[in-house]
Amino acid sequence: MRAEEALKYFQIEGAVEQIAPFGLGHINDTYIVRTSEGEYLLQQVNTQVFKKPEVLEQNIARVVQKFPKLFPAQLKTTENRYHLIGQDFCWRMQAFMSDTYSPNEVKCEVETRAVASGYAQMMAAFVTEDASNYELPIPRFHDLNWRLEQLDDAINTNFSNRLEGSKTELEGINSFRWVAEKMDGLIAEGLPLRLCHNDTKTGNILLNKTDKSFAKVIDLDTLGPGYVLNDYGDIMRSLFTIAPENEADHTKIVVRPAHLDVLREEFQSLLTQKLTPIELQTLEFGGLCMTYITAIRFFTDYLNGDVYYKTSFDKENLVRAKNQLRLLELMKDYVD
């Protein structure tokens, strides 16, 4: 189904004047829709990745109704649902907030504080939720052991014959397998499952253009049960350096301690009384977990022939994996 056809099923206002691609998402395709009455974002969900669209509908419907101030207004279909779901397609729409922006590259501490505040507010609200009422749209999404199993399968298969030229990266990934063992230990000690966003990079927050303050949290595809340390860890990973994930010059990946301090301060001020001691003590270990998972996923996709993440140049997923490994090496000195 094309975007023009999908629009007919949503309750939008005004005559459609323009439909254009928007953003640079790895997985889904997004379009800005301009009408005579306003602007909207229309998104085509990648059903090869999100194979259970009904889970998205149930999860997102629940949170946007319970916590409407945290998220942009979601448009409903003519059938009063948040997703238009067919046999091989899934579409959704939300209001486009033209007075906001998404800080894919957080450049100042004001932005860092706003990003941290937004996600901390979301986590504080989610603490009251029973995670068992939600289902992960991608099973075992942040399961480190499963990601390592996928990597081992990719190594054994070597589908694209890329293993021989990437032994250094494989050695780097293997040197951090202890992270998975530590995570297993924390779960055994009682680390609680919470409702989590599960994709808390800085680009999934909207800030107000006027003063760079927090506006909304976006991209709820991965919403579901998880661990707070993983949500914190992905924010930490995003803030650790200003370099993009596909930066070709790895020397540009440098530490920004002041931004990490702001992140820590904001979470402590909003969540110290809401999280358990084991959660509070392991937040920054989450940085290692999420950076390690991301390195594994990029490297696995590279070995498999770039079938999951969109790429724009040759060996981009290998570059991404290398950069995450460099982040891991730098980050371990900042984690107790």
Topology, please?
Elements: H1 3-7, E1 16-21, E2 29-35, E3 39-44, H2 53-66, E4 84-85, E5 90-95, E6 100-101, H3 109-126, H4 144-157, H5 167-174, H6 178-188, E7 194-196, E8 205-208, E9 214-217, E10 224-226, H7 228-240, H8 257-271, H9 277-281, H10 285-304, H11 316-331
Antiparallel strand pairs: 1-2, 2-3, 3-5, 4-5, 6-8, 7-10, 8-9
Helix pairs in contact: 3-7, 3-8, 4-10, 7-8, 7-10, 10-11
Give an overview of the whole structure:
By secondary structure, the chain is of the alpha+beta class. Strands 1-2-3-5-4 form a 5-stranded antiparallel beta sheet. Strands 6-8-9 form a 3-stranded antiparallel beta sheet, covered by helices on one side. A two-stranded antiparallel sheet has the order 7-10. Strand 2 and strand 3 form a beta hairpin. The radius of gyration is 20 Å and the shape is globular. The N and C termini lie far apart (50 Å). The relative contact order is 0.14. The model has no long low-confidence stretch (mean pLDDT 95).
